[in-house]
């Protein structure tokens, strides 16, 4: 089940992390709006192995303000995605079935229908397009 680590409005700065991840590997669904283009979003399905040797752990932790004492693997995985860019974690490899750089809200909702999502930390209104994804 995917749980929310991002904005309560998924279409503002969405970050859903699969709570049932494999050891050290996190599936993350990301969504960001284009500020100058209403109705268009970046949407990617990323897979982060937090033990990959090419990841600069100290740089990512500094970027997100994390210390060894406050280390949280899921938050670290999210930091990796934001630090290195989504396409380094497979956002562009989603079966080549969509252009993750430029998506409309309805297309994202169609994709989200295939995921089990915990809605308890998301603002869902009846008229919200994401509600149709549940």
Describe what you observe in this structure.
The structure is a single chain. The radius of gyration is 15 Å and the shape is globular. It starts with a strand and ends in a 22-residue tail after the last helix. It is built from four helices and five strands, in the order βαβββααβα. The protein has one domain (about 1-134). Helix 2 (about 55-65) packs across helix 3. With about 130 residues, it is an alpha+beta fold.
In short:
This protein has 134 residues and is α+β, with helices and mostly antiparallel strands.
Chart the SSEs and their pairings.
Layout: E1 2-4, H1 10-13, E2 14-18, E3 25-33, E4 40-49, H2 57-64, H3 73-84, E5 103-104, H4 105-112
Antiparallel strand pairs: 1-2, 2-3, 3-4, 4-5
Helix pairs in contact: 2-3
Task: Please describe the structure with a list of short key phrases separated by commas or semicolons.
134 residues; alpha+beta; five-stranded antiparallel β-sheet; 4 helices; 24% helix; 22% strand; globular
């Amino acid at each position: 089940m995917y749980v929310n680590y991002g904005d309560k409005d998924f279409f503002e700065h969405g970050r859903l992390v699969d709570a049932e991840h494999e050891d050290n590997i996190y599936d993350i669904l990301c969504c960001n709006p284009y500020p100058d283009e209403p109705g268009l979003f970046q949407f990617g399905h990323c897979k982060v192995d937090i033990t990959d040797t090419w990841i600069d752990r100290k740089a990512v932790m500094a970027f997100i303000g994390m210390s060894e004492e406050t280390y949280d693997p899921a938050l670290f995985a999210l930091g990796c995605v934001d630090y290195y860019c989504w396409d380094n974690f497979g956002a562009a490899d989603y079966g080549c079935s969509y252009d993750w750089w430029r998506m409309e809200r309805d297309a994202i909702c169609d994709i989200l229908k295939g995921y089990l999502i915990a809605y308890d930390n998301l603002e869902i209104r009846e008229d919200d397009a994401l509600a149709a994804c549940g």
